[in-house]
């Protein structure tokens, strides 16, 4: 119930406008959001690189409703890809299609993202198209395919809670397209997604094993310790090199686990979001673990 409450809040425009402007909101979100500016994000990225972790940078934003805003976001991402190259960071970028004008015109989004994938490809980098609600799944997969075949440097995210994902995994692996596998963070109907968490977890594990033995470099995005342990055991038993795939986790979530995996020699990439449009992202993190609210409040009053 709390999950649905926070997901509903994440879509509330008034709450978003109010919260993003408030100092209190910014302070609360700072556990999961690396800063308000690109410079702050790059510093956090350098710090994680020093700790042996790769990064994927995300300039927060979604549901952009004007061409001007979409192009402005595209320019920010171009700046991010350049900065990664200039500072020689171990990082790539993650973006959302609705942030690039998908709801204004899908052709606009493809043009903006295409320019970024072309730039990343030229600089030896990579662009990850994040996955949003199920209304965007097919369009995101199909756009990733077109951009991958044109420029190479694109991959996307698949969500283990969707029934269709098993087929999408095969569809993308067949073409050599890199997958980030996650459980899924949006509210979906039982006609499209497993309603029971146990079924999502079982599907995740099954698809993760398929991804890491595919020969395509994939990202296993989860903080689920039971799944991580099982994947490590499976990888060792299958004699996979530790470089065959990477674990991916969110900035500020299970930092102990991130460090332990690095110490054991596994690849870890941290998803590092930044920027003033933090509200929907932050609410989805609370939806995943409502206890975070108590944790954040305690820390807030302690500081
Ligand atoms: P699960 O929710 O079962 O949690 C397992 C354990 O992890 C919890 O018991 C808790 O200990 C810890 N944990 C999980 N979330 C936490 C949180 N917010 N705060 C504190 N502890 C937490 N989704 C999507 O729909 N599209 C996308 O593109 C992406 N991209 C993405 C990138 C990366 C790198 C990650 C790690 C995740 C995503 N996600 C995503 C989010 C994903 O779908 C999912 O909602 C979260 O990762 C939570 O699921 P877990 O696999 O961690 O398991």
Automatic annotation (TrEMBL):
One of its GO terms (biological process) is L-proline catabolic process to L-glutamate. It catalyses: L-proline + a quinone = (S)-1-pyrroline-5-carboxylate + a quinol + H(+). Residues 41-296 form the Proline dehydrogenase domain. Substrate binds at residues 96, 284-285. Binds 1 FAD per subunit. The keyword Ribonucleoprotein does not apply. Its EC number is 1.5.5.2. Pfam families: Pro_dh (PF01619). Its cofactor is FAD. InterPro entries: FAD-linked_oxidoreductase-like, PRODH_bac_arc, Proline_DH_dom, Proline_oxidase. One of its GO terms (molecular function) is nucleotide binding. Pathway: Amino-acid degradation; L-proline degradation into L-glutamate; L-glutamate from L-proline: step 1/2. Keywords: FAD, Flavoprotein, Nucleotide-binding, Oxidoreductase, Proline metabolism. FAD binds at residues 131, 159, 183-185, 197, 222-223. It comes from the Bacteria. It is an enzyme of class 1 (oxidoreductase). PANTHER family: PROLINE DEHYDROGENASE 1, MITOCHONDRIAL, PROLINE OXIDASE. This is proline dehydrogenase. It comes from Terriglobus albidus.
